[in-house]
Amino acid sequence: MSEPLETLRAIGAALDGLDTALCAFDDDDRALCWNRSFLRFFPEHDGHVHAGEPYAANLRRFYASRLSPEEAPNTEQYVIEGLARHRTQRAPYEFFHDGRWLRVTSVPLPELGRVRLWKELDVRAEAAGSPDESTARFLLTTNALDDVADGVMVTDRLHRIVWANAPFLQMYGFADRAAAFALSFEQVFRRVWEAEPENEDFRDGLRVLQENLRFAGAPFELPLPEGRWTRVVERRNAHGKSFFAHVDITVFKKQQERLRVAEQEARENARTLRVKSALLEATLERMEQGVMMVNAERIVEVCNRRAMELLDLPPALMASRPTFTEVLEHQWQHDEFAHTPDDILQFVRAGGILDRPHRYDRPRPDGRIIEVQSVPIDGGGVLRTYTDITERKRAEDQVRHVARHDGLTSLVNRDAFLEALTGFTRAGDGSGEQFAVHFIDLDRFKPVNDRFGHAVGDAVLTEVAVRLRRAVREGDVVGRMGGDEFAVLQRGDTHPDAAEGLAHRILAEICRPIEVDGQEVRVGASIGTARYPADGTSAEPLLRKADAQMYLAKATKPPLTR
Q1: Which CATH superfamily is domain 405-555 in?
Q2: What is the pLDDT of residues 311-327, one digit of tens each?
Q3: Rounded to two decimals, what is the model's pTM?
Q4: Which of 12, 15, 268, 288 is the most buried (most CB within 10 A)?
């Protein structure tokens, strides 16, 4: 690591001349090196930071120098959140520290760790004046946002409010916009809680607010007096202004609490009312299949452990004796049916239960394939079983792949290529669509095979396949027709030059030297081209035409494309 580290130190010294601070850390978040600007921007580290120091210790000094006594108890929580930002940060953000506005970015360094860079921002002009008056005048003259349901607040680079809409003013108890003008969001939050300064919700909310205002990131939720809640989303523009949306989530929070209580009561009732045979329960819990029994009222009476595992259903939900509709709602909310075919989706939307036996295979978001079988129960209800058939499907797919692909090059084989070509001719019939077929025969391949052996010959064929894939476009079909013969189905060929251009690209790719086990091997190619519909309207005539053109090209010295 010494050479990269020396390079990093040299870069740090150069950045000193640009008033840019640098501090680098290894993959274990330990300090590696820093420059003079880093100590100038963060004087609390001067004489303390050292190579190998954990970033957590660095953060503790940072927060010790900036937190008020009121915030100091939150230091460790801030350190944890700061470490998370350090490890995942991609976009730069701004914050105020030791009399400076700084913009910081964090960049991963492969095989070294991560480097953080800080640049001082010039906000003197804005600090000397009043909050962005032109923006304020513009926003104050429009009532467009007063009609939206959510609160909207705009702040300048110094975090002072320059505009707020009517729902925001109502949410935070302001009589008019002038009362909120030039206040910070923290001042607004303290003001709304001024009658209850010891309230635990206020203290928790203040900590959340202070942390999120320092480092703009994910949306956060704040409690308000009288049991109200708001969800805040901040977006900052390139000029330092911040746009806040304040969404009233009070009803959602109350519903969330009612749901929590209801689930708890349901679990308690389920434990009291559930009467199961011990043998049946043991059998269900040990089955490799998932089992779910839904009664005539569509309540899930039984759901074994395997079913919950296969479907990622939370035990708490299933213990509450939910309706089958509630189970489906949970699955919809978690994108369970994101990869489900349309015909099955329609069935699920219709309720997911039939009064006759049926089965289907359903792909899950995690890639597994689940076989679902359903049998009606006398008196109403249904018994469903869930089986993981992923490996079986994978084996079937592998068999199909082997049957349609060349084992050496993984290109489609002759049969699959002809099938694709036939499909293209049928689709193109009467549509006006044109395409081209290129038949490719390698030149000088047999001498390579005879001289170097079949292993080298196979390697050459594999490399040719790679180059063919590289030469074509997405949607084109490349196949190995057998031996040293290949074919390309070129879509969207509306002009002879396009087909000729691809043929020349293929020839150039193949003629480049191929290195195999230290040996340089050269082969060439003869390429014949047929166009649909000019040279044929079905697969066999087109392929014969391309093959004939290939032999004409091969007869030319040196071989050409035709």
Answers
A1: Reverse transcriptase/Diguanylate cyclase domain (3.30.70.270)
A2: 999 999 999 999 999 99
A3: 0.40
A4: 12
